[in-house]
What we know:
With 396 residues, this protein is an alpha/beta fold. It has helices spanning 38-41, 50-62, 73-86, 97-114, 134-139, 143-146, 164-173, 198-209, 279-294, 297-315, 342-349, 372-391; strands at 17-21, 24-27, 32-35, 90-94, 121-125, 156-159, 177-182, 185-186, 192-193, 212-216, 240-243, 254-258, 322-328, 331-336, 352-353, 355-357, 361-364. The protein contains 12 helices and 17 strands.
Amino acid sequence: MSTGTVMSTYNRLPVSFSHGEGVWLFDDNGKRYLDAISGIGVNALGHAHPELTRRLQAQAGELLHTSNVYGVKNQQALADALCAASGMDNVFFCNSGAEGNEAAIKLARLYGHSRDIDRPTIVVMENAFHGRTMATLTASGNRKVQAGFEPLINGFTRAPYGDIKALENIAKNNHDVCAVLLEPIQGEGGVNLLPEGFMESLRALCDQHHWLLMLDEVQTGNGRTGKYFAYQHSSVLPDVVVTAKGLGGGVPIGACLAKGTAASLFKPGNHGSTFGGNPLACAAGLAVVESLHTEKLIDNAEAMGQRLLDGLRERLANNKGVIKVRGKGLMIGIQMAGSCGELVAQALEAGLLINVTADKVVRLLPPLTINEQEIQGLIDTLCPLIDAWQQQPSAA
Ligand SMILES: Cc1ncc(COP(=O)(O)O)c(C=O)c1O
């Protein structure tokens, strides 16, 4: 497909869509696709959700944008809803996940300086993904994302994901550390889960060393894993939570939430965003948060996610090319024995939208509105492709 005058930052698939409905997308020729990736975890309510559409249309007719130098009613209402859902104290609104993480990184540095640390350092994880800005690509644990953009930013140190001993060692040896930033489940890194009890141990370590515990819930937030935020599967409260993706249901919005000391660090002039939290974006956020609640979509994510996980495990049990099927709620990864990028085009041909990340992991992030029949359709379409993939000589 020609990309014309658009910079070629993406290898695009040979399809574009004219419209969508629920979990379905329709291409320009009228072919229907089950969307099991939701624009990489964005369309939490599916496509053309009636309440989201209604709220956006109404808001567009009233007010699109004013400025953050004035009061923004929708922003206040969305901040209240997010604080109620998270246990956090306040929110900074921005437009993307990377921007939300930038806000968290700036909070950590302010916090470090408030503790008289001259070179505040943030612990980040191997295989992490936090975005494409200079600070967030530095925080990401993937050389492909960083290569060519050196010099990277100072003030980060890295640990293996889920290794509490490694973090304890850093605490012993590096007195510049003021915060730790991680994803509760790594998305781009391959749908990697933390060991049971890790979050509690990490909270205790952070308390002991006065580190901020900062969670990147850009992908895991807003009901995706069967709780509003993924840390709610544990008993801990973080100091900072970043979210984006599903929050606007397709309208760009990001948020950095903070609690306690972290919530009082930013003062006027420290940070800002022209568009962040504008009336239209916050109308979308409010429609998403309210629909998650009224349509019980977080419970649905948990139930349908379990059904998908069980169904895939059962159907793929004898497939030697499948190492593991893992995930939480509607964030599922199928770890394959070899590179499996070709499955994306094969699935597309079969009317199914999926994604492959970390080279060998089929990633599924369907809308949280998905029902039993659609889950079954997903399994029935995907599993034969994975079986055929396993027959290829290059599979292992
Ligand atoms: C965990 C995580 N953090 C940050 C980002 C970056 O978000 P954005 O592309 O909205 O800047 C992503 C995007 O995939 C992500 O998955």
